[in-house]
Amino acid sequence: MEPTTRRAESGAAEEAIRSVVEAAVWAPSVHNTQPWWFGSAGKERVSSAGWTMNLRISLHADVDRRLDVADPDGREMLISCGAALCTLRVAIRELGHEPEVTPLPDADRPGLVADIRFGRRLPGSEDNHRLHQEIRRRRTHRGAFLADPLPEALLSALRREAQREGAELRIVTSERVRAALGALTEAAEHVQRSIPAYVAEAARWAPRPGTLRQDGVHDTAYPRTPQRTEPHYPMRDYARGRGWGVDDPDELIEDVVTGVVAMLTTDGDRRSDWLNAGQALQRILLRASADDVSAAFHTQALEVPELREFIRARFCGGAHPQMLLRLGRTPPAGSPAAERTSVRRPAEIITEEP
Q1: CA 10 to CA 41: how far, in whole Å?
Q2: Are 229 and 258 spatial neighbours (Cβ–Cβ below 8 Å)?
Q3: Could you tell me the pLDDT band of residue 225, with boundaries at 50, 70 and 90?
Q4: Region of residue 30 (phi > 0: left; psi between -120 and 50: alpha; otherwise: beta)
Q5: DSSP secondary structure string, 3-20?
Q6: pLDDT given for residue 340 in this prediction
Q7: What's the pLDDT score for residue 245?
Q8: Residue 141 near residue 330, CB atoms below 8 Å
Q9: How much is the average pLDDT of 274-296?
Q10: Which of helix, strand or coil describes residue 116?
Q11: How far apart are the first and last CA of the chain?
């Protein structure tokens, strides 16, 4: 093969890696910390079909972006990385390749989350294409939902998506349990606000208005006055009582509800389970987004060990709760209750590897 042709192939390989990482950075992460970086590798390979590129991406946890106070074990960090891994898989499949994933491949390198190779060529998948279209469209919601019941068929589909990734999505139907989980979330929020280390850590990821950053939760991402629902699930106090946020033009809508309360659980509570939970979470969010359904996250109680254990024993049948969320349809597009995500550029987080 001529050198110019080889350079063209190499450029195509770099573009493929860049495009899938561009998708992965839109995955949800706790406080929008984006606790990941990516290694890329491309090797020449000669086969009967000619010269090709053997493409590989490695996903790494960025421990400098871990929440040391709220997440000392790195559970939420790995859930975030799992969401990025799922997004990588969807993006690689969209390019017409089978993603070959080796999760947690090296026990001596705990920061190495997964190795992902571009596998054999596959025909296009309409189902995968539908998920891929939602990667940038999906938004975290910070507020109440419209009183528009979600169809059981959709909830069943979301359960199946979780099961595909080794997790379970438990829909909370009991009004007493919904109220109890809301009360536990509110209790955890009060506890965390009373601990200076929690407040300081959250403040690191909630910049003041006007701050130019490509991560964290900005004041344009949450309403100044959150709507209250019954049962109430408080959002995090990113404004730290300073009145930050934006005025919500939809705050006068009266017919709003808590939405569907759900818990994402796994049978085990190891690093592999956390990674599976993150992949399940992203599949759920993308599938929901395709039906114009958004999610609000309430993980405060799961960051308090005693409360997480209580929830596991009382409400999860012994399974381990990894995420607590609400699902529903949101007010009209443009509501500030839908998070405007800022993401880092791929060039900042891709490193070439041998």
Answers
A1: 11
A2: yes
A3: confident
A4: beta
A5: HHHHHHHHHHHHHHHHHH
A6: 54
A7: 85
A8: yes
A9: 97
A10: strand
A11: 23
Instruction: Decide if 277 contacts 266 (C-beta within 8 A).
Output: yes
Tens digit of each residue's pLDDT (9 = 90 or more) over 226-249: 778 899 999 998 988 888 988 765
Handedness of CA 117, 119, 123, 125 (dihedral sign): negative
Is 114 a residue whose pLDDT tops 50?
A: yes
Cα–Cα distances (Å) from 12 to 9, 19, 52, 349, in that order, read: 5, 10, 11, 19
What beta strand segments (E) does the chain contain? 36-47, 50-61, 97-103, 112-121, 145-146, 168-172, 256-257, 260-266, 294-297, 320-328, 350-352
Does residue 218 register a pLDDT over 50? Answer: yes
Token representation of residue 156: 């069943």
Q: Where are the alpha helices (DSSP H) in 168-219?
A: 175-193, 196-204
Q: Scanning the structure block, which residue is given the tokens 């993980």?
A: 299
Whole-structure pTM value: 0.92
Q: Give the 3-state DSSP-derived string for 280-291, with helices as H, strands as E and coil as C.
A: HHHHHHHHHHCC
Q: Residue 79: beta bridge partners?
A: none
Contact 82/282 with Cβ under 8 angstroms? Answer: yes
SS3 (DSSP) at 318: coil
CA distance 309 to 70: 15
Give the residue carrying structure tokens 């169809």: 151
Which pLDDT value is given to residue 43?
53
